[in-house]
Amino acid sequence: MSALTKIMKYNEGFVNEGNYQEFETTKYPDQKIVILTCMDTRLLELLQKAIGLKNGDAKIIRNAGAVIANPFDSVMRSILISIHEFETKEVFIIGHHECGMASLQAEAILEKIKGQGIDEKCIDTIIQSGISLSDWLTGFGCVEKSVSQSVNIVKNHPLVPNNVVVHGLVIHPQTGQLELVIDGNENKQESSIEEGIYV
């Protein structure tokens, strides 16, 4: 049985039995937070349970490594929409230990891409268009540093209001234990005092 067949069969029972009712909520996050985290399978349920979230509490964005590549990528766009359209007030960047992005090497990924039958001419065309695949397909060396860089992109973004707080954390993928990298409340207070605005 294919994954699609299995999913569709399960979904039919889920809907017919009314199991969706326990998840009913609005599109506005109750806790007014947005979370960027990794797509790692170990975090699918663990993260929400480790931080006490239920359905409807937060907007959650997932990608490889919980990384914001640049200030105008699709992840940052999603964060901005969450802030301006869905009234979120706090942003959490949550990376994790043992992340696959920590050891990702462009050369190895390119070999796997070629091994799946992607013609090298396609790869050359992408490179000739100005995309640096070696940069795009390379991970990070330190998860804490990666989280800090993403926090700084959000915090310093020209379209993020001053009253939005940005935090950085790292979660352990087995235990769910959190490590605080950046407390946005402390940084917010420091920057507000520097600007002569007291909170």
Automatic annotation (TrEMBL):
<dbReference type="Pfam" id="PF00484">
    <property type="entry name" value="Pro_CA"/>
</dbReference>
<feature type="binding site">
    <location>
        <position position="40"/>
    </location>
    <ligand>
        <name>Zn(2+)</name>
    </ligand>
</feature>
<feature type="binding site">
    <location>
        <position position="96"/>
    </location>
    <ligand>
        <name>Zn(2+)</name>
    </ligand>
</feature>
<dbReference type="InterPro" id="IPR001765">
    <property type="entry name" value="Carbonic_anhydrase"/>
</dbReference>
<feature type="binding site">
    <location>
        <position position="99"/>
    </location>
    <ligand>
        <name>Zn(2+)</name>
    </ligand>
</feature>
<comment type="similarity">
    <text>Belongs to the beta-class carbonic anhydrase family.</text>
</comment>
<dbReference type="GO" id="GO:0004089">
    <property type="term" value="F:carbonate dehydratase activity"/>
</dbReference>
<protein>
    <recommendedName>
        <fullName>carbonic anhydrase</fullName>
        <ecNumber>4.2.1.1</ecNumber>
    </recommendedName>
</protein>
<feature type="binding site">
    <location>
        <position position="38"/>
    </location>
    <ligand>
        <name>Zn(2+)</name>
    </ligand>
</feature>
<keyword id="KW-0479">Metal-binding</keyword>
<dbReference type="InterPro" id="IPR036874">
    <property type="entry name" value="Carbonic_anhydrase_sf"/>
</dbReference>
<dbReference type="GO" id="GO:0008270">
    <property type="term" value="F:zinc ion binding"/>
</dbReference>
<keyword id="KW-0862">Zinc</keyword>
